[in-house]
Design a protein that fits this description.
By secondary structure, the protein is of the alpha/beta class. The protein has one domain. Helix content is 48%, strand content 13%. Strands 1-8-7-2-6-3 form a six-stranded mixed sheet, with helices on both faces. It has a two-stranded parallel ribbon with strand order 4-5. It starts with 6 loop residues before the first helix and ends with a helix. The relative contact order is 0.15.
Length: 300
């Protein structure tokens, strides 16, 4: 399809294919999710959860990859620690420049890691359709009380952390990959300038989400998959990607051991704990900035 049709028609066809297979899979997904909601037996629910994971992280991902194999001739240059295992628990962090990043990560990590999960705020469970998906896929819920709330109700201190940790108990014997874009938003020159970021290609990382993940799941997660995505021809928009205008993507994977002293929740307790966590994250981000610079400046 990449050579038969012009870019605009290619984009329309790619989008149409996405819509078709997503709608079809969603019909099956919601039907199975309804059974999960109605059946109280925990053993049955666990089996249903695995089926739902297979639809979201297996079948949908396969359809997405095959669609782009037909729609474009992108060269994916993947380097680094590519020998990952789907039977291990991982925290995955990546730089974030475009919605295309998600499709790139899906392709690069296909069959290499266990099902993806995102920490979500409790309020998102009430979103129509999406909230039900989050619930059905067992996305761990993150709840944080405001400073004003804790001052008014001191007994709530630490309850939010324990609630989040309890949500993650179901993953104790079920490997997952926790995804986290620690910059919190997509990179842009305007945001970079506004932040006064010390990095050449990256925004300032936010530590709260990563600290929550490690506190809630530190007993299971020992390895960090540090992913750096580079677009040597310029950062594409999603439509450009659908139209096949993106020709080359470079991705570097680095597997890192997570220091044990970052899993104790001290980030939320005192300045020293926060300082230690930020030092680790900023060092990681400085190295990522150098890696991204090298990927962008490398000859084809």
């Amino acid at each position: 399809m990449s050579y038969i049709f012009p870019p605009l028609l290619r984009g329309v066809l790619t989008f149409a294919i996405y819509v078709v297979f997503t709608v079809v899979l969603c019909l099956f997904f919601y039907l199975i999710a309804a059974v999960k909601f109605l059946v109280p037996a925990q053993g049955t629910r666990k089996q249903i959860s695995r089926t739902l994971d297979s639809i979201a992280s297996g079948i949908w991902v396969w359809c997405s990859v095959r669609t782009h194999d037909l729609a474009g001739s992108v060269i994916y240059d993947v380097s680094g620690d590519t020998n990952l295992r789907p039977d291990q628990w991982y925290m995955i962090v990546s730089n974030h420049q475009s919605w295309v990043d998600i499709l790139v990560l899906i392709r690069v990590l296909k069959s290499k890691v266990p099902p993806y999960k995102f920490f979500i705020k409790k309020e998102l469970l009430w979103l129509p359709f999406m909230g039900q998906c989050f619930w059905a896929l067992d996305f761990p819920v993150m709840r944080r009380y405001s400073k004003e709330m804790l001052e008014k109700y001191p007994h709530l201190k630490g309850k939010d952390l324990e609630t989040t940790r309890k949500y993650c108990e179901k993953f104790r014997h079920r490997p997952v990959s926790i995804m986290n874009f620690v910059e919190g938003t997509r990179f842009s020159a305007k945001k970079h300038e506004k932040q006064g970021s010390p990095y050449k290609h990256l925004l300032v990382p936010r530590a709260g989400g990563a600290a929550m993940i490690l506190y809630a799941m530190g007993d299971q997660i020992h390895d960090l998959v540090d992913i750096t995505i580079a677009y040597p021809e310029g950062v594409p928009g999603l439509w450009d990607y659908f139209c096949g205008r993106t020709r080359r993507v470079r991705v570097h994977l680095r597997l890192r051991k997570i220091p044990e002293d970052l899993k104790n929740g001290l980030y939320f307790e005192d300045k020293q704990g926060r300082s230690r966590f930020y030092s680790w994250l900023n060092e990681l981000w400085a190295q990522k900035d150098q890696t991204l610079d090298a990927l962008l400046s490398r000859d084809a």
